[in-house]
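Q: For a teaching handout, I want to show students what a protein-ligand complex looks like in token form. Below are the inputs, and the small molecule is glutamic acid. Please produce the holo structure.
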Amino acid sequence: MHDMQAILDDIATKVTALPDRGKVATYIPQLACVDPDQFGMTVALPDGTVYSSGDAQTLFSIQSISKVFTLTIALGKLGDALWRRVGREPSGDPFNSIVQLEMEHGKPRNPFINAGAIAVVDAIMMGHQPKETIAEILQFVRFIADDNSICMDDRVAKSELLTGDRNASLAHFMASFGHFKNPVDFVLGTYFHQCSIAMSCEQLARAALFLVSDGLNTSNGTRVVSAQRARRINSLMMMCGHYDGSGEFAFRVGLPGKSGVGGGIMAVAPGKASIAVWSPGLDHVGNSKLGTIALEMLAERTGWSVFGH
Ligand code: GLU
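A: Here is the structure, written as tokens, with glutamic acid included.
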């Protein structure tokens, strides 16, 4: 048995002493206001016990981590029909790349690049108003995290809307292929709101518990998805969760994970624990610099990996 508290405290001490914390994302102005000097980490066990270190109760913008939650909702609504709208191959391209989309006729490579996540939002809207879909997404996140205090940060959503030309381009480009069923502006507004959900490491680790135990949150007995679906979501996180840094993350950490430009990473050690880590400074591909190092250290000390036991 590991002394998890001691491991986390030690990791926090070591990573926060590192001189290079990466760079905070600035293309969404509201994210540029975040103090880079923060680090938090939580490990949640299947029985609901959580161990935390550092700024694990501080709220941050989960950004692209929300794509795991909207994918889960979309699979619940559409099942395998979702894969007609979006692929499931790693992209090898930056998160907001438009190049591949043209060659592949407007069908995004996977649900975790921006184009794919925007297509997923179009799929789950099903003719509803943005505020209804936004409420549905928030409701789902509160349900899986077992925490009704979780909210969206309107300032972040507005900030991204004002500077979201690239995402708007991706959305209009996909719509030009006749793929969209809802007005592009509705889809984009909903997407920016889902990205603006604010959570702490503790809330995020709890929200990921259903992916640890084959779709069942064993801490409260709630079944969220089937075992097969949980495994498939984990496989997508492993292959595509870190954009063009996904191979590097699999190599260094060996666990499925999803990052966001707010500096958070949600990771899953199947059967063992869920992990959330946050530090706002990003590496050159947009993944949390200290967060990745911390997860690498945790995997090494616990022996958690999907590639061995
Ligand atoms: N809201 C961000 C965007 O669309 C999400 C990107 C990310 O977290 O990687 O640009």
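A: Two things your students might notice: Residues 63-64, 95-96, 114, 160, 167, 195, 260-261, 286 surround glutamic acid (CB under 6 Å). The radius of gyration is 18 Å.
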